[in-house]
Specification:
InterPro entries: FAD/NAD-bd_sf, HdrA-like. The chain is α/β, with parallel strands linked by helices. It has 2 domains: about 290 residues, FAD/NAD(P)-binding domain; about 90 residues, no CATH class. It is built from 9 helices and 17 strands. α1 packs parallel to α8 and α8 packs across α9. It is globular. The C terminus is likely disordered. Bound molecules: flavin-adenine dinucleotide. The site of flavin-adenine dinucleotide (FAD) has 39 residues, from α1, β4 and α8.
């Protein structure tokens, strides 16, 4: 295909994807004085946390930086005194969506909704912008640094960054889940099951072999994470199958819950797309490993810290989940950097990490932290005219601190390299 595409907008920093990583990256880049635009495929910000109806923040052993600010503004009752506590608040995805719209506007980030990344604009080995499908067709967006927060490393893949997916032995990724809500009506409700639905009779027969739901909103809302569909959500055939199978499971699980312990609950919300846990990981300048997690490794170029457990929903689709507690570890800046391509940072769940390591770092609060660091790093590279890999780590830490990030343990020079 050969065609001429007009440049619709030019910015210092282009963030692609408006999930936890993308929203934080855009905020921190804009706060660093850089003109920042965010291109989001859907009509909303928040990524899986709104679009996928995930709507619980898992505890990671800290509440700091932009994530802390979001909690303090959006869920003030959940804000802990210390930066180093775990919180596990449930929230309204509809209200988070609205909050993030307002937040990005206040921060001076221009958000392009309904704008899907199509292809990277490359000058040799440097990304200098992106082509995206907008409501007005194909447009170009030029920028000094692109931050890939698509969750699937879509920009990186297109720019030729090597990636891997899933388990080392067979490439199987964690299964997908269509999360849904039920609402207590205070009286028994009519039950229905589609003709092709599953009539589950016991917990053992359920897709995850367990009950997994939250009722923490205090208003009769039940948030249900109980479906399970095998496949890689970045593959065309897998996602096509998962969207249909996920909904079939949701209607069947709702019917099971009504027949068992929730006779008064109606199905009240099914999001527009299935939740995707794991797809592509870039091969970056450093790859986070299971050993880094279990040994509690610290890094000189730390940009995020977490103690969230290893949490692997069985990639074969079988009903068990591998859950292992961790004491806490660092994620280094190098995990966000492709080895060869310049002008591109990857933040969020698709950073350079093994299958086991990503199962822990993938939760929302960590993705907000990674995004915040990526936005600052982009700004620093622009200011110093340096390569992203040559950004000064002390300066990066200084700017993170200025933006409210408090690391649990002082970073000692030379440690963990
Ligand atoms: C079923 C499920 C349950 C989970 N449970 C929890 C939980 O309880 N608590 C928790 O904290 N975490 C949970 N997680 C993990 C967490 O939600 C995700 O790992 C996290 O949201 C990843 O953040 P991200 O910013 O990397 O990507 P995402 O949240 O995936 O956001 C990516 C964004 O990029 C956009 N995008 C994608 N492609 C393009 C494109 N081509 N062009 C433009 N935009 C694009 C998407 O529309 C989306 O908005 C769960 C995940 C799933 C799937």
């Amino acid at each position: 295909m050969k065609r001429t595409v007009s440049v619709h907008d030019t910015a210092d920093v282009i963030v692609v994807g408006g999930g936890p990583a993308g929203t934080a990256a855009a905020i921190s880049a804009a706060r660093s004085g850089k003109r920042t635009i965010l291109l989001e495929h859907s009509a909303q910000l928040g990524g899986m946390g709104t679009l996928g109806n995930v709507s619980v923040f898992m505890g990671i052993g800290n509440v700091t930086g932009i994530y802390r600010e979001i909690i303090s503004e959006f869920l003030p009752a959940a804000l802990p005194d210390s930066h180093h506590e775990s919180i596990w608040p449930q929230y309204s995805p509809f209200e988070l969506r609205h909050y993030l719209n307002q937040k990005l506007e206040k921060e001076g980030v221009y958000v392009y909704y309904h704008t899907s990344f199509v292809s990277a604009m490359l000058e040799g080995k440097r990304v200098s912008g992106v082509f995206a499908n907008t409501r007005e067709g194909l447009k170009a967006f030029a920028g000094a640094v692109v931050i890939d927060c698509t969750g699937d490393a879509r920009v990186a893949v297109d720019a030729g960054v090597p990636t891997h997916a899933g388990r080392e032995e067979d490439g199987l990724t964690q299964p997908m889940t269509l999360m849904f809500m039920m609402q207590d009506t205070g009286k028994p409700v009519a039950q229905s099951l589609p003709e092709d639905g599953y009539r589950y009779e016991s917990v053992e027969e359920l897709p995850q072999g367990r009950h997994l739901y939250w009722g923490g909103m205090g208003d009769g809302t039940l948030l249900v994470n109980m479906s399970r569909v095998k496949g890689n959500g970045a593959k065309i055939e897998d996602i096509n199958y998962a969207e249909k199978e996920g909904l079939r499971q949701v209607l069947s699980i709702a019917n099971y819950l009504q027949r068992t312990n929730h006779p008064n609950h109606i199905l009240s919300h099914v999001p527009g797309q299935i939740g995707v846990r794991e797809t592509n990981q870039i091969e970056g300048r450093y790859t986070l490993t299971e050993e880094d997690l279990t040994s509690g490794r610290r890094f000189e170029d730390v940009v995020a810290q977490t103690n969230y457990e290893i949490d692997i929903h069985n990639p074969t689709g079988q009903a068990n989940t591998d859950e292992r507690k961790l004491d806490g570890y660092d994620i280094p800046y190098r995990c966000l950097l492709p080895a060869e391509i310049e002008g591109l940072i990857v933040a969020g769940r698709s950073i350079s990490a093994s299958h086991v390591a990503m199962s822990s770092m993938r939760v929302q609060a960590t993705c907000y932290a990674l995004g915040q660091a990526a936005g600052i790093a982009a700004a620093l590279a622009i200011e110093s005219g340096s390569a992203l890999a040559d950004v000064s780590i002390p300066l990066l830490h200084e700017r993170l601190a200025e933006q409210g990030v408090v690391f649990q343990k002082p970073v000692k020079s030379g440690e963990g390299r």
